[in-house]
Design brief:
Strand order of the largest sheet: 3-2-1-4
Number of helices: 1
Helix content: 10-25%
Order of helices and strands: EEEHE
Length: 83
């Protein structure tokens, strides 16, 4: 068991330099806490076979929008490569 197993959200360090291809299971809005004491609602992508979600910043929202359009539901079932 690792300490990172207890983290809810996927981070770059979890990829360990790999660039996996994953399938988007769903994208949901969740309350996140980027700064202590400050909650924000953010889109979070969850992938098939993974418990950790990826908080979608504007930087990672742009390619999803370019690839699959403006409707978030069109991302479900799509394969993407994480970097």
């Amino acid at each position: 068991m690792k300490w990172s197993d207890f983290e809810k959200y996927l981070k770059g360090e979890h990829l360990q330099g790999k660039r996996p291809i994953v399938t988007i299971r769903e994208i949901v809005i969740e309350e996140t806490h980027a700064q202590a004491g400050r909650a924000e609602d953010k889109p979070v992508a969850y992938f098939v076979g993974s418990k950790k979600g990826l908080i979608l910043s504007p930087t990672n929202q742009r390619p999803l929008r370019a690839l699959f359009g403006d409707d978030v539901t069109f991302c479900q079932g799509q394969r993407v490569q994480l970097e």
